[in-house]
Specification:
Rossmann fold; 4 helices; 143 residues; 24% helix
Length: 143
Amino acid sequence: MQYLKLDISEISQHPIAAKELVAFAGNCKMFLFDAPMGAGKTTFIKSLCQFLDVTDTMSSPTYSIVNEYNTKSDVKIYHFDLYRLKSSEELFEIGFEDYVYSTNYIFIEWPELALPFLDSYLRIIIQIENNKRYLCAEIIKSS
């Protein structure tokens, strides 16, 4: 099992961590973020978007459920926040499967309801230990 652990305690560490995370992910473009409220999921996703050359203004999709960002390379990034959803049926209703089968990057905060739709993904956990934040990542592939 491949595993990555990066210190992201300081915002200044985010650009390097974003580069390392994208390299670690390889062809995997489905990133699932698991962390408690306020741990820095959205902040780190903004750093990832900057690394991927997003040309749009980035914001949290808490109320819109999904934000779409364009990049300089014409790749799209879909940023989901599933915190307010109550069932995977709601995901189905918004056409989540169409996003999953695209070749674009997908970043999901609060991803529990999305798991039944996914075969493989990059699981990212932000841990807080002794006033430091660590981004831990592993690639998950179902058999």
